[in-house]
Every structure is written in structure tokens, then in C-alpha cells.
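notes to self, project folder thing:

trying the whole complex as one job this time. last attempt i did each chain seperately and stitching them together was a nightmare. two parts in total, labels are on each line so i dont mix them up again. if this works i'll redo the older ones the same way
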Amino acid sequence: MSELLDQEVAARVLSRALANGGRFAEVFAERRGGLTMAIDESRIESVQAGAEEGAGVRVVDGATTYFAHVDGLEPAELERAADEAASALRSGRTEPRPLTARTVVPVPIAVAPEGVPAARKAELLRELDQRGRDMGAEVAQFTASYAEARRVVTIANSDGLFTGDDRTRTRIGAQAVARRGDKVETGAETLGAHRGFELLEDDPGLIAEQAARKALTLLDARPAPSGTMPVVVGGGFGGVLFHEMTGHGLEIDHIHKGASVYIGKLGEQVAQPLLNAYDDGRLPNEWGSDAIDDEGQPTQQTKVIEDGRLISYLYDHLGAERDGVASTGNGRRESFRHLPLPRMTNTYIAPGETTPEAMIAAVKNGFYAVSFGGGQVDPATGDFVFGVSEGYLIEDGRVTSPCTGATLIGNCLDALAAIDAVGDDFFMKTGICGKGGQKVPVGTGQGHVRVGKMTVGGTQL
Amino acid sequence: MSELPSVELSPAAARAVEAALAAGASAAEAYAGRDTGREVRVHGGEVESLTAATQTGIGIRAWDGHRVGYAYGTDLSEAGVVALAARAAEMAAVADEDEFAAPPAPAEIEALPGLDSPSVAEWSAGRVAELALAVERAALAADSRVAGVETAVYADSTEQVAIASSTGIAASYESSNCFAYLQALAEGEGGRETGLGFGLGRGPEDLDPEAIGAEGAERAVAMIGAGKPASRSCPVVLDPTVAASFAGLIGGALSARAVQRGRSPFAGRLGEEIASTSFALHDDGRDPAGAASAPFDGEGVPRRRTALVEGGALRGYLYDTYTANRERTASTGSAARSGYRSLPSVSTSNLIVAAGELSTEDLLAEAGDGVFVTDVAGLHSGVNPVTGVFSVGASGRAIRDGALAEPLREFTIAGELVAMLRAVVAAGSETRWVPFGGSVSTPPLLVSELAISGT
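result (full assembly):
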């Protein structure tokens, strides 16, 4: 394990953090670096490299967390951060427990992206550009991006934990604009994982074709319908539906603040018995996976819904302490400049038994949302909204016209209970989740899922 | 302050430019920033978290002829800056030639006083925590149906910026901003409702905790018992928070980068009638009341006022140096950065939607029967910035016989941006600065027709 801090320095920082009291202190040190570039108008541009390091120190006393962060990892700077965090406390010294090193096996990386020449990454983008534009003369614009990021972290806390992790993520994206006369449509696709450059060994150009195909398909689209109807949601990124509808409302901070529709629902039937769902930070090499969370807790598979019954919330250290349970390894933060929050890792609805074909065939008239641009929920009211990036009408059990401008809208508990079929064609996709101003990588997944009744908001009345 | 403040970041920026030239760059620019900030979050009458932090870093653009590369980092030591400069030059070698990629020439920068407030430094952590607690208390006291406050937050930051370039740019400034907001929770039949209250200023003395708390309470309580509206096309009044979100989308689509690359509904429409005469919009990077104001932009070009929509016609786009070079025109000082980590890119500064003459009451009377939208959700996925087609989640109140009626939720408003601008039949007289869609000052707007999808 590559440690950013000596154990002895970490112990000294924790001791200073508790100099004026407090029941818990933690130092989170991080070195983060990355490279991003893009191709636009068939030109490589926006080539940028970053290298940052620093640490955040927090002290918890009563219901209050005191937090300070600094750039750089000089011991004197870390001690300054500890003094700053401790400065508002007025009690006597608390002694941290002696540190014990806990070794972590990071998610395995086969080909470190730093070792691959930047020119090779530029070549990859040129290949995507070619593949996207080759999809047809109506592809008017094409852009693609490449991003690699590595985060090395060391975490020590006053409970005696001293551990660390080394994380490398790689992701590419493609966006196409198709044009026919005055009609303009867009399509996008991404590929990402907690992996190195080996992610791109298979056929990365495929996402360029997929993005272009989406945009081209929509050139024949009609305006989306308006009204309430059965909705079949596609696999993979369709899982963002569950992420927004349920996942956020299970994060323990929302529960503790009285701001979730899932308060008091533990043990209750919230969905039909065919539904099983998980948050799983240990899925091998998945985008939202890490060996440990950002508080040093090993990640785990947490079953949240079993046969339609709600059985668990998602916990970070402080939320778990308050409820007298163990953390589920969901304490995550964007960087050393942020406090950890209870966050999802990879969240998914487990595969069911229905084929997508059978699910669609059983719908007389409805809407087929293949993929979303994203979604948003207010966990307190349960109101959610999803922008559909690729959608079709279902007429007499058959998928017919593509539609643009559709948004799905509804309330969590109603929509979750209305899921009446779960597909057997499970897969995962990558997402970036924002909460409290912090962005973290999350995986979403499912097979096709049918919601018996949902509001589609389009322009066609 | 009439002089531009000199900050110690300037020597670091100058050193970085020298180092990039020494590493083989034909031209270079360095942007050094230091952000000192604090944030207090309170819940249930107690401080939940108190954060104090400073971050300092530098971003270096290196040109190799017409290729440009970028590197940023937190290490401002001599050796650290040399390594970053070399990395920037290395990145430039990977980029393709672009004949329009070049650093801007220096221009005279007029000082802009009043960007900071001494109260940020004077108010102790305890005093700003008390302000956040007062916001929470005000919401709880405003109405017995307020069951709690999800979060009440106070945050401030003081930003110092220095820029230097091999073309002779050397400038710096300091500004401060603060805000407080809360999300109030109201309980009533039909469940829980939330309401946002917020305030913005240069320093904590500009904030009114009573008003912020009362606004959150009022918005949450107003939603109790909300139902879904019938699907139809009808007049819609957008309140300033919602109008600001739409103004931000329009401002983004007026970026010359999106326009030149054919990714904007406004591309090729300069001089055309794209809005009703009731809608006028300009960008002003020097408005003293705007949170985004600064003497110069993210590449050292003076900030200014730029007319965008006037008399119903599209008057202009926003340019940085690169997009201006492409059209042989001048930058509008619209290169924005989100700190030292980001390359400059075209963005709005402060967007200002012109006020009209009608009070909000008169706007509602004018609407007759329709919907008053007080909140929108899902803008990042429900709006296509290339085509302007949108369908977003919304909540608000029914307008019946020209006055506010029952609360409404779980519906969408859908349309197309240009068609919506053409349908703005009146702007209200009461404007407000809103931190959504960037930094936007806007009145409420009456749109004659939008598609509502509910039941």
C-alpha cells in the first residue's frame, strides 16, 4: 500500500485534532491526478493534466462536525488543519486510540493509464470520431472525450484505523448531432469502469456508433405524448430510475433529517414481491466500486429491498453510530476538500424472470424509455423527474415511433409499487451523482423494468 | 479600493509563464487562484458542521504555435511550478493545430471597486453560525405547519485571482461572496412538502435571516395539499427562480462556441426576431450587484456589458478570445473559469433580464387562467441545449380568475426555447438576483402558452 502519510504523522495530527476534546477525529489525505482530452470538429483539443494533493481533518463533538482542509501533505500543514478544526472546541483533551495499520487490496488495475502515451489516447479519440462520422452523412457534428483519474488515499481515525486505497478510473464518452434539413437531434453514449486502459482494449469505437445511431434514429421522431400510461424502462442506465426513486431516500442523512418518504418504512412492503435490489460497492471493477469507502470502511453488498420489502438504509460512519448499527461502507466524498456523506456506490434492481419482449408485448398502449439523460429527486417529498434521451411509443404490444422531448415524472412510493415486471437482461452503466455539491461516480443497473402507470410529460396533448 | 489589489499570487503566475517558455512553449499564460471559505450547516438548533478551508492552485496554458495544452496543480513551489509548466507544454504537443488558438493581447483593465466586504473577515465563525441558526428559527416560527428544516446553510468565500501571460497581461483582483439558504419542511394532508429560501450578498451583513427563513416556510406551506393539474396548453407565469433557470439555458446557447459548432438553437440567427419585444436580455460582467462580477475574465480580458436580445431581435453572442478569433471579432470578456482547475471557456457572467411594468399581481391577472410555476426540476436531463427542446418537472400554483389558487405538483412544462421567448407577453417589474442558471437578475415572466402535462 502506498501511504501518503507516515503512521507517526497521522497519529500526531489526530492527537492535535482532539486537543480541545471531541469524540472522533479523522485525517483523510489524498493525491489525485488525471488526464482529460476531447475531439471536436475532428481536432484533438482541451488536453489537460492535473496534479493535486492535500488533506482534510474532521473532529466530531456532540452533533457537530468541525472540518478543515489544506493543500499539500507537509506535516506542518496537516497539523495546522488539525488546529483549525479543533479551534472551536473548548473541552479537555481526548486521547485517540493507537493506530493499527489495516491493509486493503485495491481494485485491480491491469494497465495503468499513466503509463500509456498521451498520443495513444488521442489516436483512440480519432478512431471514435471516424466511427461516429462513418455512420452516415446526416451525422453533422461529433465529439468524444477521454478521461483517466487516479486517487491515492490514506485514512486514519481516532478509533485506531490506519488504512488506504489506490483507485484508477477510466471513462470515454461520445456525443453525436444529426441533422436533416431543419431537424436536429442528439445522441450520447459512455463507457467507464474502475479499471485502467484495459477497459479500452475491446471495441471502444462501439460507443461512437451507438451515439450516432441514437441521434439518427431520433431524426424520424415525433413529439412525445403527454399523459399517464404504462412505461417500460430499458436496462442498464434505466437503473437511474431506482437510484433516484429509492436509493437517495435510503441514504441515512435524509432519514435522520425527516426528509425522506422511506422514514418508518423499514420492514414494510414498498414494492411488489418480484422486486429485489442492492447497493454493492464490491462489484468487480464496476464504476462505483472501491475497496473501502472514504472513511476507511470496507465496501459491501447491501440488500435494500427483498421480495418487495424494504430491509436496509445506507449508512456512513456518523449515521451508523447514531442508529447503533455498523456502517454499510457508503461514506463517500468527492475529494479531501469535502466531508463524507452517505452515498450510493453501484445500485441496481436484481434480474427478474420476464423477457423484455414479453414485457412490451403485454402493453396495449404505452411508452418505452430506452435510456435517460439523467434524473432528479426531492427525497423529502418523493417527487422525481427523468429526462428521456431515447424513447418510443408502444402501440398494440409493439415498439413503434421514436419520440423526442419526453420526461417521466412521478412520486417515489407510487412508482416503486407500480413496478409489475422485472427483466432477465441485466447490465450496469456508469453515472455521476451529485449531492450536497459533491460529485461521485456511481453505477446504475437493471434489466428492463415495467412501471404499470406513470406520467409522461411531452408536448403532444 | 480604487487600485487593483496586489496579491502574492502574481509572482507565482509570472514564474509559471517564464517556466513554460523555458520548457519550449511559444506562448504561455498562468492563472493563480486562492479561495478562502467557510461553511456552516445547522439542523435542529445545533451546528451540524463547520468547515474552514483555503485552497490555492495554478493552471498553466502553454501554446506550441497553434497547439494548446493545459496543466494545473496545487504545488506552487519553484520546483512544482516548473514541473507543471513542463506538463502543460507536453499536453500542447498532443493537441492538434488550430489556427485560431492564441493568447489574448493585453488591454486596459478598469478597476472595479466594491467586490468585497469587510464583514466576511470581521464576522467570527460563531457569529455566522448564529446567522444560520436564525434562518432556521425564522422558518420554524413563520408557520405552525412547518415541521422542520432539512438544512440551513451559511457559506462565504473570498477569492483572489492573479493572471499573467507572455503577451504582457499582468492583473489581479479580490472579491467576496456569501449566501444563506434553507430547505423548510411542511407537513399537511397529502404528506411532506419542501420550500427553498435564500439570500445572496458580498458579506454576511447583506443577508436577512428573517426573510430567508420566512421565504422557505412560505414556499413549503403553500404546497400543502398539492394535486396534479390537467394536461393542457395554457398561460404560464414563471417566478424569478424559474425564469433565471431558463435565462441561464438561453445564455448558454448564446455562447459563440456552441453557435460556431452548430450546437445552438440560436446559430445563424443574428439580427433575426427570436423573442417578443417584452423580453430583453444582456450580460454584464461589471454589474456591482452581480456575484460573477470581476474587472477581467478568465484569460485577462476586461469584463463588459454585452447586449444579447433587444427589441425582440438577437443582438449578439458571447465570445472568448478563441471564438472571437474565429470570426475576426473581439472577445466580449466572456471566458469563464471554475477556478484554476479549468481551462477558460465561453460562459455568461451576470445575466440580466429586463424588468417590465406589471407587478406580480398584475401579471397573474393578465394570465387569467393558467399555472404559476415556482420550481422546476431535471433541467440537466430535460433540456436539449442543441435543439432547445425541453420538458422539465415543475410545481407551483394554479392561476384562476387572475389570482393564485390551489397548489400543483408532479407535472411537466414542455416546449422549445425560441418559441417560449416569442410567447413572453409581459415581464414583471419586481426583479431579483438568483443563483440558478449562473448569476441572474430577472423579474417574473408571463408566457402566453406552454404545454402542461399532468393527469
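what i see at first glance: Residues 232-453 of chain B form one domain.
need to look closer tmrw
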